[in-house]
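Annual report, structural modelling task.

Input specification for the magnesium ion complex:
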Amino acid sequence: MAMINPGSTNFIQAIINEDLKTGKNEGRVHTRFPPEPNGYLHIGHAKSICLNFGTAALYQGLCNLRFDDTNPSKEEIEFVESIKEDVRWLGFDWEDRMYFASDYFEQLYDFAVELIKLGHAYVCDLSATQIREYRGTLTEPGKNSPYRDRTVEENLDLFRRMRAGEFADGSRVLRAKIDMASPNLNMRDPVLYRILRQTHHRTGDKWCIYPMYDYAHPLSDYLEGITHSICTLEFEDHRPLYDWPLEVLNLKDRPQQIEFARLNLTHTVMSKRILRELVEQGYVSGWDDPRMPTISGLRRRGVTPAAIRDFCERIGVAKSNSTVDIGLLEHCIREDLNEKALRVMAVLRPLKVVIENYPEDQVEELDAENNPENPAMGVRKIPFSRVIYIEQEDFMEDPPKKFFRLSPGKEVRLKHAYIIKCEQVIKDEKTGQIIELRCTYDPETRSGMASGTRKVKGTLHWVSARHAVPAEVRLLNHLFLSENPGEEKSELGYKASLNPDSLEVLSSCLVEPSLTEATPDTRYQFLRQGYFALDPVDSSPENLVFNRVVSLRDSWAKAQKS
Ligand code: ATP
Ligand code: MG
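The model returned the following structure:
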């Protein structure tokens, strides 16, 4: 039996605490996560997963995974498999409780027969258009269907024959007999079953009638012994309809629907329909494109489940819709990676530097700490030699006043190594482009040596030319430029806001040799460049590919301070 959680932090926990006090549900807490298998899960689903599984765990309760597969035309097995993988990866376990709404088709049919017998449902021959016309509006009541008063016997006969396949698709429906004048449009004799000859991914061609979501959902919850059916706010108006079959069938131990605000994120679209369009129309490389807000995209990008869970915890649950700054998600990713990431050196846009007074064949193995935030992560050796590469943008021939990086005649420290001074700039004769710098080093300034403490203003990252490993680096930016791409007014809709620079590929990067041992599970901080991880799909030992998980600049934390 569950225990009251005295530290309750949200309104859902407050409801559950109250239920436990009054002894409702014999003290059980049982939730479910009910995805429709018509796409990949996204960060919004992560909120629902954390909420459903997290709430159950908090009360020593249970959470089921239930596929809401009542809509045969859109569902695919690929999506079922991806959803299972994503929920598991996020760190949650449904144990032996994976269900499909289609498992209940027979029981749902029996419930419908019962509703007919009780006089609460009827077969209606109006077309879809007519049903809409008869429905009325927010200001006008609807009109009764001419088929509303069929006898129980006639309804039973017609419904049985609907199932037997005697009628054409769309020619008849089963409707609830509630109230065509209800102020709530959802209660104006909603459709419960439709005829649809469509092969189902699990039941094949066994059925040619399919239950509607609003009918199947409360009864599926009931059949699984769900106590708290947590869903998003747009179902608030459907709540009387959720309760309706449970009440008129006089079922005991009814589940309770509780609505919360869905997650919206700036610079992001969350609708599965749109995400699917992005994939199918080739705007991204797939559902797991690292720019996608999908769980699989975030995983491929190098985000950890811990960061996503932390984000879901911080946004909390509320009763009114709002949009969360994507900077908060990035902040959570950064905080998580700051602890975990190995600090390494990688030069994204290399500029050759020859240290003229460094012996030709000498190589020094220098000590480099793996994570200054966590000394337990140890040190590694990095090779230093006469020819190195630095970042092109770390040199300016004619710098402004506050440029503390390298320029002619100026000194900088090379991280973990020596102070160098720029003596000469070599340019391509034809193009005038800077192709090489000639420098000298001060042997007395090696990092970590007693004599090495002389200070200069700038410190640069670098790699040794002889030892560096080539790599491709992908810088990922927001997929959408506008904050609210879903509300784009132009004719193109969200497409008007697609960011043409969402993916920047740098193909001639050089990384330190320790990265030949990189695995997709390891996260790195490329000094001064951000957090990176191997792309698990495109990277290979011969051809290293890194994604930038997130940059170092924390716009969110900054905005909080000001
Ligand atoms: P669509 O984009 O097609 O409307 P959906 O959101 O209805 O998709 P489902 O597969 O039905 O997708 O969602 C499964 C569960 O995840 C539902 O309980 C739904 O309320 C929840 N969910 C979906 N999107 C969000 C979101 N942005 N924030 C929080 N929960 C969400
Ligand atoms: Mg849905």
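The chain has 13 helices and 27 strands.
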